[in-house]
Design brief:
With 161 residues, the chain is α/β, with parallel strands linked by helices. It is built from 5 helices and 5 strands; from the N terminus they run βαβαβαβααβ. The mean pLDDT is 82.
Length: 161
Amino acid sequence: MEMNKERKIVVAVDESEESMYALKWCIANLMSHEENYKLVLHYVKPPLPALYSYFDAAGLIFAGDFVLAMEKYGRESANSVMERAEAVCRTSNTTNNINMERAVGTGDAKDVICSTVQKVKADILVMGSHGYGFLKRALLGSVSDHCAKHAKCPVVIVKHP
């Protein structure tokens, strides 16, 4: 790899301690002072529920208010997570070569993350592991398992100690 090339690392972040630990691990273990990085902090908001079909004409006004409230909550959650992630980056001692960028998507996390990785042409994807057991992973599915199989770049899954 040539020295001047900017390496793109996507780190999936959410409200969990596991994702913030993965971010800290990424900065400490994958980034050196000699290279330039673009660190893409990626947060995925869940999709809004489809409420419109359940209400009559009068209920649509309520549904609209609900959707606006949910959109506001989603924006506030994304900003809160991003500010927390950026604070983690600022407290690390290698941030002088890191060009940070925010990426916020909406939808099914596993699909949105894989799509973003491909769109930004990431060199690597870093994710935290929630440490779900077999049964919970089988019922809920694992975003990190899906991304490890489908992302178009190497994936590092960091387990919280």
